[in-house]
Amino acid sequence: MSLVKDLTNGIYRENPIFKLALGMCPFLAVTTSVENAIGMGAAATFVLICSNFLVSLLRNLIPSKVRIPCYIVIIATFVTLVDMIMNAYVPDLHRALGIFIPLIVVNCIILGRAEGFANRHPVLNSVADAVGMGIGFTLAMILLASFRELLGNGTWLNINVLGPGYRNQPLLIAILAPGAFILLGFILGFFNILEKRRGGGQR
Description:
- The chain is mainly α and 203 residues long.
- The chain has one domain.
- Helices cover 70% and strands 2% of the residues.
- The protein has 9 helices and 2 strands, in the order H-H-H-H-H-H-H-E-E-H-H.
- Strand 1 (155-156) and strand 2 form a beta hairpin.
- Helix 3 crosses helix 4 (67-89) and helix 4 (67-89) packs across helix 5 (91-97).
- The longest helix is centred in the C-terminal third of the chain and has 31 residues, at 123-153.
- The chain starts with a helix and ends with a helix.
């Protein structure tokens, strides 16, 4: 039961974006398309799972005084691996994500889960937590990217959804930085309303 809880926490109850407000920089920067969101989500999830696994495995061997530098070295190793793999097999996506792939090293979601969870829990629980957090992060990115791509280009996964008429006169602000903040505000407001209604129903 604990594994199930660790797995599902990151998807909604402790969603790193909508609940903890972590990892906002890549979240806002690369969600101009669903393809970019899936790519960044997959890369971050891979690094999260691998780093949580290794940190939990070595948690009793890493001296407490140097644990943060050790975590960064572990995370940077897997980020370098992801960077090289993406450059080799999906170069277009690699170019689109650009500097945000190396910046996964300092992503506060990954470092935060290593310090706050994997450092204190067994390997299986740490992996389950990483999977849940990765799924939650990826779903959040896909949600925002869907709105931004639809409104900004009239497409979803590069498929023309709203027709050529809309694509000729799209809502361009949606794929610009101000549009990301505005749409994020609406999404956070929606989740806050849901939480209030849930709280009212429980009382």
